[in-house]
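Support reply, case 0932

Customer input (verbatim):
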Amino acid sequence: MRNILSINKNWTFIKDSTAVPTALPVTGEKIDLPHTWNAIDGQDGGNDYFRGSCCYVKELEKSELPHGEKYYLEINGANSSADVYMNGKRLAHHDGGYSAWRVEITNTLREKNCLCIIVDNSANDRVYPQIADFTFYGGLYRDVNIIAVSELHFDLDYYGTSGVMITPCVSEGKADVRIDTFHNGANACRVLYRIYGMEGELVCEKDSENSSEVLTINDPHLWNGRKDPYLYTAILSLMHNGAEVDRISVRFGCRSYIIDPERGFILNGEEYPLRGVARHQDRWKIGNALLPCHHEEDMELICEVGANTIRLAHYQHDSYFYDLCDQKGVVVWAEIPYISKHMSTANENAVSQMRELITQNYNHPCIAVWGLSNEITMDGAKDPDLIAMHKQLNDLVHKADPTRPTTLACISMCDINERIVHITDVLSYNHYFGWYGGSVEENGAWFDNFHKKYPHRPIGCSEYGCEALNWHSSNPKQGDYTEEYQAYYHEQLIKQLFSRKYLWATHVWNMFDFGADARAEGGENGQNHKGLVTFDRKYKKDAFYAYKAWLSDEPFVHICGKRYVDRTEDVTRVTVYSNLPEVELFAGGKSLGKKTAPDHFFYFDVPNVGQTKLEAIAGEYRDSSFIQKVDRVNQDYILREQGAVLNWFDITETEGRYSLNDTIGDIMKSARGKLWCACLLMSIAKKQKGTGTEKMKKSSYMNKGALKMVNGFTVLRLTGMLGMINISFTKEELLRMNAKLNRIKKPKNL
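Our regenerated output:
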């Protein structure tokens, strides 16, 4: 019978090493798995985290292993490439840092063994991802197991599969459940198929010599999303001469769905708008080396906000998290890390990662779509090899899983008429109008335009969001990183996106702040701060409650701006979020009246005198905070970029003239300003050429869509963000640029 033994304990870690020991002990750091070597340097900024090869060594004594005739090493995550050695002998190599894989070790086992795994996350051109806005944490960051099985067993060799594929087909009054098993006992074994309900009751069974059978469930209890995530359990027993030699247990759900270009997502015959979030798997000072409790906390927070869908970006997540999605009824977009930059030298890797994603996760009822790529057209959408790769992946998915559609996350500046936009079954776009240039009002209008031109093409929004840290303002503006602007942005996006029935899914970017070591913005380098919840999961930003008000049935009331206490204005605006119909706000014990708000956003003008306690009451629910009047703006509320060459307040401004604090779009409204912008682009092009990257004319931000987005950036913000692609300006260069701008008059209408 099958036995699984965790070998997470008692490893020796040797950083920056490819030496393969053949015996123990070895000198190094004593660690337990899961482990990453980038838990700190992958989150502190500078884009200088260690990327290279490291060695993990462990002693295995055969006498301590469970009994078996065959032994497999199972590695659930080694980022991003790994080689396995046993007693100095190389057994296997694997490329791809987010999927499970196995190595048979039966014939190399001795009584005492030196197991060595060399893990490598160094830059290369053959394994995805290589360019992306997140940290590629290196390490053995998920569980490592030994699986002991009989000579005859369910398959352990094919792309990390479970050895069984379960395909329910729901029709009126029944579900025909096709179960395909894969094992090495052909002509020698029988399979006992059994299906149990959630209370442990036997629903149906069949004893067969066939490796594939269809079992019928009459009046099936459907897996119905967050409303009722009912799961069945299939237990498959491999029988030889009347004895059970192997057994596997798989949970599955019976459900049907379609994605309609007018009505959106339809689950079990009922409209079920998918409104949710995207998730990265890492944590503050932990990186991607998560424990089950971390996954559970993430799921609790996602359920609290009321989301019914998660885009698991931008790679295969831990199997435990897919299990949680099954249990909680959360619909999942699953994808591979084919992202940002197409590499023809990595086509084979994209294919293998897609096969692993599907074979390892086929049985999860939560998964609705397979994502082929994300923002892959950053360098343009015309490359014939790029198009061919997407067609190949699309065909692969349809053949491997005919039951689920394919999808794609397009970067905002990818023209809607490009061939790549029309390959997959359904589609979503990543849009940041109102944060990366443009205005918040453009989001809904853009989707209306797409839907009008392609009414038969299901369209969704796979990313939208803006960054917020502990900065505050009563007059929030795009690009100021305040919690107040993030709240305003999401209020507007909620009203625009949720009111458009045809959008098959919307995913906030992101549920949690996450590590992106190349980032240097917002005053805390090394992170992307677009999360509704902070990186450490300790603080729910105000925007979190805006979504909870729309999506959750759990009654609550929340006063925004709890971290924004000191205010200078005599009358200040206070926002309250609630999913209850009426809210009353008290200031210093005095009622400011009751308000209703169909959009769940309640606004009150509050007299600001001295220190004032605020209390919001909605039915039996209460929330409180306080504000206080100050004469001057609290400087702790104003963004100061860490390590910035210049901050906005260091820049000389002349009335009626431009400066680095003006947007590109405003500067372009002047004839001399256009010339200045042309010189800026030439300077960027020269610096980019010096980095060894693609020439400016091939870069994504030179197309019309990108230029429109750049128009919303101040010059200072644009030059700062270029640091993420290793293009930087010195303080002296920026001051010279500002001096030239100070000599250019603004048009009178500015």
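We compared this against your earlier run and they match. Two observations from our side: The chain is about 20% helix and 30% strand. The two ends are 77 Å apart (CA to CA). Please reopen the case if you see a mismatch on your end.
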